[in-house]
Fold this sequence. Notes:
Elements: E1 2-4, E2 8-12, E3 16-21, H1 27-53, H2 58-87, E4 88-95, E5 99-105, E6 111-114, E7 119-124, H3 132-138, E8 146-152, E9 155-161, H4 165-182
Antiparallel strand pairs: 1-2, 2-3, 3-4, 4-5, 5-6, 7-8, 8-9
Helix pairs in contact: 1-2
Amino acid sequence: xxxxxxxxxxxxxxxxxxxxxxxxxxxxxxxxxxxxxxxxxxxxxxxxxxxxxxxxxxxxxxxxxxxxxxxxxxxxxxxxxxxxxxxxxxxxxxxxxxxxxxxxxxxxxxxxxxxxxxxxxxxxxxxxxxxxxxxxxxxxxxxxxxxxxxxxxxxxxxxxxxxxxxxxxxxxxxxxxxxxxxxx
Length: 184
């Protein structure tokens, strides 16, 4: 395996190139996010306990049910982002058949093939650091922040979560050269 930056590694052979992009590994951020998620689950548990144990009037029950809907939404989103930080990775494979992308949790995920002839407008964009978009995408609770995009049958496909400018340029050079090589 060869490395491009701290988070990207690739393995190259004559028949395929495999690229692995891992999330940023920041132990302090992961610990804080884990503590926040534990607190969030405690709040949800307390509300569920109160809902089924305490004698509440109908209006209080409705308020708690509405709160639980929002609680479930954020519990799902933050749990997904937290698991991505700990166990996720993006797998890219380029071969003679096409460009394959897999967002993987542990070893689970769906490998999707994109054929070179149908890929249009392959590019990358790095948001400026001091803009709202840049700050939002750099936050740990957001799983998005894909830097690369291409059009495939009228739909925009994205990958390359939270790459910095240096890593994105190096990965772009690698992908462009391999796509030219394998698409012939």
